[in-house]
Design goal:
The chain has two domains: 41 residues; 242 residues, Sandwich (Immunoglobulin-like). It starts with a helix and ends with a helix. The protein is globular. 14% of the residues lie in helices and 31% in strands. The protein has 298 residues and is α+β, with helices and mostly antiparallel strands. The strands form three sheets. Strands 5, 8, 9, 10, 13, 14 and 15 form a seven-stranded antiparallel β-sheet that branches. Strands 1-2-3-4-12-11 form a six-stranded antiparallel β-sheet, with no helix packed on it. A two-stranded antiparallel sheet has the order 6-7.
Length: 298
């Protein structure tokens, strides 16, 4: 009977091993200008893209989205077609945001921004402001002439001249990676989560986001467009983007988390391989048989 506590320990070890490795959203997003490793919208039980000027979250309940066995959540926003301002690029689709997607894992935050028609990757200046703490700065960097209703701690920026983030003291740090595909009409961006000062996992509502596309001036900054340099933004305000930013403020923001579907210990962990489980189970069984043999002889 002295062996029973040891066997209980081994069985507990077997159960605990199933909670070993942290999971990652989608198993990682490749920054290559392709949406193939993002959720497969409209496939089987995977919802179609949300209606104009609205967003939704894909999670493990959407089994046909192709998020992966240990996937995290993905936020999808559909922006109205043709609502961009026409101050620059002749009102072409280069600056017409039509879709935003965000996901994250323990290492990075990932963004996909799709335009209606990218003919020149030098046209876009993307800015994603993140509010993660009390305080911060409300004025978007690079002289974008656009305010927010709350203070940000980081602004992720990507264009053909630079990829990285601004802190709320207007300091820019090059970080992460970005890729523009004119063939697929989209940009992908990744930024290390730690650089953004964000926790993993994060509940929905932990962080505020605001998103703007401006005209890129070819030198890493924004083209001047008067009261606000924003050409298109994520907003629920109908009609042209000017209706949202004519007062120099991007008022719309949204909150989200980036984590496994449920923030519990069991769902924050990856499942161990079948081979590993068999090895441990066999070892426990052999120990149990050996113990029974000793007890019968004693």
């Amino acid at each position: 009977m002295r062996k029973i506590p040891f066997l209980s320990f081994m069985f507990a070890l077997l159960l605990a091993f199933g909670q070993a490795s942290p999971t990652a959203a989608h198993g990682g997003i490749a920054i290559d200008g392709s949406a193939s490793d993002w959720g497969n919208l409209g496939n089987g039980s995977c919802p179609s893209a949300p209606s104009d000027n609205s967003g939704q979250v894909l999670d493990l309940s959407h089994t046909d989205c192709g998020l992966g066995a240990n996937a995290g959540t993905e936020y999808v926003w559909t922006d109205a077609l043709g609502d961009q301002r026409t101050d620059h690029w002749g009102g072409t689709g280069n600056l017409d945001l039509t879709q935003l997607r965000i996901t994250g894992d323990a290492n990075n935050l990932y963004f996909l921004l799709r335009s209606s028609d990218i003919t020149n990757c030098n046209a876009q200046y993307m800015a994603i402001a993140i509010d993660s703490a009390v305080g911060g700065t409300t004025f978007l960097p690079d002289s974008a002439d656009t305010n927010l209703p709350w203070g940000y701690e980081r602004v992720v920026v990507a264009n053909t001249n630079k990829t990285g983030y601004f802190t709320n003291d207007s300091t820019f740090t090059a970080a992460g990676a970005s890729f523009c595909s004119d063939a697929n009409n989209l940009w992908e961006i990744s930024i290390p989560r730690a650089d953004l000062g964000l926790a993993w996992p994060a509940n929905a509502g932990d962080y505020n986001f605001a998103v703007m596309i401006a005209c890129h001036n070819g030198a890493g900054g924004t083209c001047n467009a008067g009261t606000s340099d924003a050409m298109d933004v994520v907003t629920t305000v109908a009609g042209n983007t000017w209706n949202e930013v004519s007062d120099g403020t991007l008022n719309h923001s949204f909150t989200m988390g980036f984590s496994p579907t449920a923030v519990t210990l069991s769902q924050q962990q990856a499942t161990p391989t079948t081979h590993t489980l068999w090895v441990i189970a066999t070892a426990v069984l052999l120990l149990a048989l050996a113990t029974q043999h000793r007890l019968r002889r004693g």
